[in-house]
Amino acid sequence: KLLLNKEFFKISLEKMAALTEENRDYWTELDSDIGDGDHGINLSIGFRGVTEKLQENYDNSNDINDLLKKSGMILLSKVGGASGPLYGSFFMKIGKDVVGKNEVTFVEFVDMLKNGIEAIQMRGKAELGDKTMLDTLLPGLDYLELHKEDEDSIKVLEDAVAIMKQGSDSTIPLVAKKGRAMRLGERAIGHRDPGSASSWMLINVFLEEMKK
Ligand code: ADP
Ligand code: MG
Ligand code: MG
After folding, report:
1. Is this structure's pTM higher than 0.90?
2. Is 7 within 8 Å of 48 (Cβ atoms)?
3. Dihedral, CA atoms, 117, 52, 54, 196, nearest 10 degrees?
4. Measured distance CA(26)–CA(54) in Å, rounded
5. Which reaction(s) does the protein catalyse, per the Swiss-Prot or TrEMBL entry (predicted)?
6. Are the C-beta atoms of residues 144 and 110 closer than 8 Å to each other?
7. Which ligand lies nearest the alpha carbon of 183?
8. d(CA 43, ligand 3 centre) in Å
9. How far, in Å, CA of 157 to CA of 160, rounded?
10. Is 71 in the pocket of ligand 1 (CB under 6 A)?
11. How far apart (Å, rounded) are the C-alpha atoms in residues 205 and 211?
């Protein structure tokens, strides 16, 4: 049975930081089309802050929640844009039911994602179809909840990530009801929401690490 330990989450955070550097320009370009052109820059600043702290070995405890919560607080405090508080709350809340644990099962992992995604929704008040990162995250979460007990956990997450990717595609024809792109009205049609792209790619890091 798949067990995910604190090292898994630590490495995932480091890989997310690396992914963010690789996609900084892409995410920023998406945001130039329908926002203010800083989404990749924002996440790069945030995850550089997280990496710095990880290198300082600031978290010596064996507590998964500690690591994730502190990382979320860094994202929240370092990132100026909307995505900082949103991703910040995701990481601040994903560990709230695993306080003191140093490993979790796949079912617990899915419950963690649920807590994180609910925190994004609580903070941003967006719904499915508003052309935000939730168009990526909510359909994937629904799938995970239905299949979290299935035999092959990695396949379940793989399918969920594929659904999230489609969720990002689904933002292209939409008018935005939340975030900066709202101001564009119909001119947002034909453009992918930047946060919908970064969010499936970041969740995909967990999948890549699980495969190892
Ligand atoms: P800003 O818009 O402040 O410049 P970013 O460019 O970093 O911040 O992030 C923009 C992304 O944040 C959007 O593409 C969208 O996915 C997400 N977003 C914005 N507002 C909300 C919201 N209320 N709920 C969920 N996601 C949101
Ligand atoms: Mg922006
Ligand atoms: Mg901005």
Report:
1. yes
2. no
3. 20
4. 25
5. dihydroxyacetone + phosphoenolpyruvate = dihydroxyacetone phosphate + pyruvate
6. yes
7. 1
8. 11
9. 5
10. no
11. 10
> In whole angstroms, how far apart are CA 8 and each of 128, 180, 208?
30, 34, 11
The highest-level CATH class for domain 3-210 is mainly alpha
Q: Phi first, then psi: what are they for 61, rounded to 5°?
A: -75, 170
Q: How far apart are CA 147 and CA 120, in angstroms?
A: 22
Ligand 1 atom at shortest distance from the alpha carbon of 195: 16
CA distances from 81 to 10, 42, 46, 131, 180 (A): 24, 7, 10, 17, 10
**Average model confidence (pLDDT) for the chain?**
96
Residue of 76, 89, 118, 133 best suited for mutating to test ligand 1, as the one with most atoms within 8 Å of CB: 133
- The full set of domain ranges for the chain reads 3-210
132, two tokens: 């935000």
CA distance linking residue 189 with residue 181, whole number of Å: 10
ipTM over cut 0.85: yes
190-211 pLDDT, tens digit per residue, is: 999 999 999 999 999 999 999 9
